[in-house]
Design brief:
single chain; alpha/beta; five-stranded mixed sheet; 63% helix; globular
């Protein structure tokens, strides 16, 4: 196989990019990002299910341990299935994220090809590369966000939709709408925007598409609420939903905050520049289709985030909702450039792809290399495991979560410490707390667990001066700073 043949064989490019993707993730896997609270909260229910404790959590600040976890369960069930085969460890969890993200990207690029949305190979290769390595998806799978299950469901639905006839398409829309409430609540609203966009272009099916989406959404929500009712956790679901929501303040304030999230993504500036140029060209040559595509792309990229923020909830981790369809539209516009400009078009597209993915996976890998020793999670695991006995009941913050859960008889998690039952608090014999996050850990232990606690030892992995060059933790002096506490006299 020659380099020349690679230029014309799309599967080879997909295979090569996939290899690069897995290799880069292997380099940063346990180092970047550092183990943090949200990752622990999204892993804990699956691990408890693996242990036979059911879909419960000892890491959630609003749900008591022993209560059924009243969150979207699909991600936890998928992760539990994976851990049944590959076990529980930071490597296992993060390889699960990497693999599901890759499968989603593969499904999307096949759907895009089958549907004819992108007719040129290099457009599809660019789409696959940016989806896989750009900041939108990297920020989800690298941080072990449960939103990953929603991306997977939407990708598989797109794959089926692109391969089926009229009735099959409607069935795919219905099934996706049924499943999405079990994956991510906001994704169901987002799916509504996608169905409306489909209805605009598939006008002969518009009515049936919307009816299938509405019927599926109603069915899914009813099933979700029924399961929460049967588990007697509807109240906990409401509480966690209120605390997780960003839906506070005036309409103007919320819309402004939503717009700020758009501008916080540097990749968005490249696409906005693209859309402005193509809109001007569309007006100049009186090309209505080009103008319509620009409006759709800008609608997803610029208007969708603040609208979702106003309606329910939106954070930076959801930027994939805006970026994926916007980038797809940008590539569709690029394909409209006349063939006589094929070379400059190819070079500009390659440059844009590089600029877009740099803040994503390449940045994470560069950050791992800059602080290879300082972000060595093996040191944290060895340090914690050497201080824990199998009979211990302990309290751990996020950095000590994986070794603490593996080594101790039982481990509560610090972010859920206020929910530890009163009769269980005096059974906790050791605590491993994140000293980069807690202002006065001894006082907090006394307040929540009672008694007197003493700092016995601490682990410090001091960060290098080069940390200021790359986020996401530029102000913290330590990559890991864990304190070991025991009850004192």
């Amino acid at each position: 196989m020659t380099l020349h043949s690679l230029r014309w064989r799309e599967p080879y490019w997909i295979f090569f990019i996939s290899l690069v993707y897995f290799a880069l993730n292997a380099l940063r896997l346990t180092r970047v990002p550092r183990v943090w609270q949200d990752e622990v909260q999204d892993v804990e229910p699956a691990f408890n299910l693996l242990l036979g404790h059911g879909l419960t959590s000892a890491a959630h600040p609003y749900i008591g341990f022993g209560d059924f976890f009243s969150g979207p369960p699909l991600f936890f069930l998928m992760l539990w299935s994976w851990m049944e085969v590959f076990g529980f460890s930071i490597e296992s969890v993060r390889w699960f994220d990497v693999t599901v993200a890759w499968g989603s990207a593969i499904a999307l690029v096949i759907a895009v090809r089958r549907s004819g949305l992108l007719k040129e190979k290099y457009s599809r290769i660019s789409f696959f590369t940016v989806v896989l390595m750009g900041v939108a998806l990297t920020g989800v799978y690298a941080n072990t966000r449960y939103d990953l299950s929603a991306i997977f469901v939407l990708s598989i639905a797109a794959l089926f939709y692109s391969h089926l006839g009229r009735q099959g398409k409607l069935a795919a829309v219905f099934a996706c709408a049924v499943i999405l409430p079990f994956a991510n609540y906001l994704a169901l609203i987002y799916f509504g925007f996608l169905v409306l966009t489909l209805a605009f272009y598939e006008r002969s099916m518009a009515r049936d598409l919307m009816l299938a989406g509405i019927a599926g959404a109603m069915t899914g929500v009813i099933l979700l609420f029924a399961s929460f009712y049967l588990m007697d956790v509807l109240a906990g679901f409401g509480t966690s939903l209120v605390h997780a929501s960003t839906n506070w303040g005036s309409l103007t304030t919320k819309f402004t905050k939503g717009m700020a999230l758009v501008w916080s993504d540097r990749s968005a500036f490249i696409l906005i520049a693209f859309f402005i140029v193509f809109f001007i060209v569309g007006v100049a040559v009186n090309d209505r289709d080009t103008r319509n595509l620009v409006v759709v792309g800008l609608g997803f990229l610029v208007l969708l985030p603040p609208v979702l923020y106003v309606a329910v909830h939106y954070t930076g981790s959801y930027r994939w909702m805006a970026f994926f369809p916007a980038f797809l539209v940008a590539l569709m516009l690029v394909e409209r450039v006349p063939d006589r400009f094929v070379k400059p078009r190819t070079y500009v597209l390659a440059l844009c792809v590089i600029l877009i993915i740099l803040p994503g996976l390449p940045r994470y890998v560069a950050y791992a290399f800059l602080e290879w020793k300082e972000l060595n999670y093996d040191l944290v695991e060895d340090w914690v495991i050497s201080r824990v006995e199998p009979s211990d009941t302990i309290l751990v913050d996020a950095p000590a979560y994986y070794p603490g859960k593996q080594a101790a008889g039982f481990a509560y998690v610090g972010c859920g410490q206020t929910r530890i039952p009163a009769e269980k608090r005096n059974t906790i014999s050791k605590a491993f707390l994140d000293l980069t996050r807690r202002q006065d850990p001894v006082a907090e232990l006394k307040e929540h667990l009672g008694g007197h606690w003493v700092l016995v030892d601490e682990l410090k992995l001091e960060r290098s001066a080069m940390r200021l060059a790359l986020p996401p933790y530029p102000k913290e002096p330590y990559s890991y700073h864990v304190g070991y506490f025991v009850p004192g006299e």
